[in-house]
Write a structure and sequence with these properties.
Strand content: under 5%
Number of helices: 10
Order of helices and strands: HHHHHHHHHH
Structural class: mainly alpha
Largest sheet: none
Shape: globular
Radius of gyration: 21 Å
Number of strands: 0
Helix content: 55-70%
Distance between the termini: 47 Å
Length: about 280
């Protein structure tokens, strides 16, 4: 079914996976940029319809159309200028038409996607676990950057991710199915309880419902045993980044910080190194 070279030469599989990951990273950039705008358009249309003032038909805007263009001058980006990483380097990080700087975000997302895909191929080989881990990692990247930009964790990613985790674990790919089901329920409940406890104590909302769904999805993939590590790791990463923002970037203490990126990073840590960390921790006692 697969070329024999994938089995005979693991380095070849890793290289192919990394290159494919770069292509996926280019698509993730589109998702990160456009999906929130698509949701906002839909919400505005629904609100207008409920108010009895339907909005006029708008031009098609989705993950396929319109073509990618420079946000500064509107220059349509041809395929030769849309090669992951290579085009950014060749263009020296500038639009070929107007010379405006291209956000470093684009090559960073592509590099992350490619590197994680290569690591997954090296770790799991050619297997269902590799496919699942790659999908999980790419979803974490998209959710982290969308939340950074908009404070959204779209249901259109978190909910399919949750169901995908349960489906992969129906055959015990990462954990047994009962552990995945309990992990999904416990992940949602854990942050739901924190949310309401914080709201009763302060009268403020400390996080959004998207965070509940993201932790539920992580629980569905990794099982309930990884939830304590995920919550602890996300809190530690969030605390370090939050303190750094306050000290070095003069980030106001009252200004909200999205929690989704920290959950995403913690989820990746738990996916790839969670068992080793848990074993090390338990061995201490």
């Amino acid at each position: 079914m697969f070329p024999a070279s994938f089995y005979a030469y693991p380095a070849f599989l890793v290289t192919v996976a990394a290159l494919f990951g770069l292509i996926v990273g280019s698509f993730l950039n589109v998702v990160i940029h456009r999906l929130p705008k698509m949701l906002e358009r839909r919400w505005r249309s629904e609100c207008a319809e409920l108010a009895g003032t339907p909005s006029p038909p708008a031009e098609r805007y989705d993950l396929v159309k319109p073509r990618s263009a420079c946000p500064h001058c509107g220059h349509m980006i041809p395929a030769i200028e849309n090669i992951p990483l290579a085009s950014y380097i060749a263009l020296r990080g500038k639009c070929s038409h107007c010379g405006a700087a291209i956000s470093l975000r684009y090559p960073v997302v592509e590099a992350l996607s490619g590197a994680l895909a290569g690591y997954v191929a090296w770790r799991y080989g050619l297997s269902a676990a590799a496919l699942g881990a790659a999908l999980f990692a790419w979803a974490m990247i998209a959710l982290a950057f969308i939340d950074l930009d908009t404070f959204y964790l779209p249901d259109s990613i978190t909910l399919p991710l949750l169901w995908a985790g349960l489906l992969f674990n129906a055959g015990g790919t990462f954990v047994e199915l009962h552990s995945a089901v309990i992990g999904a329920a416990a992940g949602y409940a854990a942050l739901w309880i924190v949310y309401w406890a914080f709201k009763f104590a302060t009268g403020k909302e400390g996080m959004g419902y998207g965070d509940f769904k993201l932790l539920a999805a992580i629980g569905a993939w990794l099982g309930w045993k990884m939830l304590p590590l995920t919550i602890l790791a996300s809190s530690l990463v969030g605390a370090v980044v939050g303190i750094a923002l306050i000290v070095f970037a003069k980030h106001g203490r009252e200004k909200p910080i999205p929690f989704g990126p920290y959950l995403a990073v913690a989820g990746l840590i738990a996916m790839f190194w969670g068992e080793r960390i848990n074993k090390y921790y338990l061995d201490l006692f």
